[in-house]
């Protein structure tokens, strides 16, 4: 299966069905644990995580989390949060359409979510 490119900042139609999305995720070694996010953003998250993970000479969870956070803050606006690791617990509140929890290669878990930002008076 051909890996689609991600158009940063623009919505791009890729998935005409859940089967195609599932095929894309499987081809990248990703298993979605829980999600509340449009398919184009899921693809963006997985592409960004996979590219960052594969390109790091010395992998650290913190570097991958920072890369995803900065990418999503830049493209979709603040405030995105990212937790990366092999074992962690969490309980978070997220904005509608801004949550994805997935595993890469059955060992590395990534929690990416957005929260609303309110201006301080």
Explain what you see.
The longest helix is centred in the middle third of the chain and has 17 residues, at 39-55. A 4-stranded antiparallel β-sheet has the order 1-3-4-2. The relative contact order is 0.19. It is built from 3 helices and 4 strands. Strand 3 and strand 4 form a beta hairpin. With 121 residues, the protein is an alpha+beta fold. Mean pLDDT is 86; it is low at 1-15.
List keywords for this structure.
121 residues, alpha+beta, four-stranded antiparallel β-sheet, 4 strands, 21% strand, globular, disordered N terminus, dynein intermediate chain binding
Query: On the 0-100 scale, what is the average pLDDT?
Result: 86
Structural category is alpha+beta
**What spatial order of strands do you see in the largest sheet?**
1-3-4-2
- The proportion of strand residues reads 15-25%
Helix count, DSSP H or I runs of 4 or more residues:
3
* C-alpha Rg (nearest Å): 14 Å
Shape: globular
> What letter string, H or E per element, gives the SSE order?
HEHHEEE
